[in-house]
Amino acid sequence: MSQQNVELVREAIDAFNRGDLDATVQAAAPDAVLDSSRAIGPYRGVYRLADFRPFIGAFSGTFELVRVEPEEFIDAGEQVVVWGTIYFEGRDGLEAIASGALVWTLRDGRAVRIGLYQERDEALEAAGQSE
Length: 131
What we know:
CATH class: Alpha Beta
Number of domains: 1
Strand order of the largest sheet: 2-1-6-5-4-3
Radius of gyration: 14 Å
Helix content: 25-40%
Number of strands: 6
Strand content: 35-45%
Number of helices: 4
Shape: globular
Largest sheet: 6 strands, mixed
Distance between the termini: 23 Å
Oligomer: single chain
CATH topology: Nuclear Transport Factor 2, Chain: A
Order of helices and strands: HHEEHEEEEH
């Protein structure tokens, strides 16, 4: 099941990158939570599934382009840790780059929690893994 979890996460990120919000949200269970409480910036909080679209829309709408480039998928059973880089391109041509991790917790083939972490070791610890 864990390789299936990695593929589900990979497909959801690919959908996000191509702007397919429907496919991105379909990866989530009805009771899913997006936890960006550790985020730096204005989009800090914990969001339920009903809030995913407005959150992603507001976040993505701030920029001309937001692209997630995973560098590593770490299979942790019911959890998948994705370490990578997020590229932001602003409306005035300004660009920003941030590294971070997402910890996806999956049950029955759907995400029940997606947590954002600024540090790799913190994400690994949250998934019960260590370096």
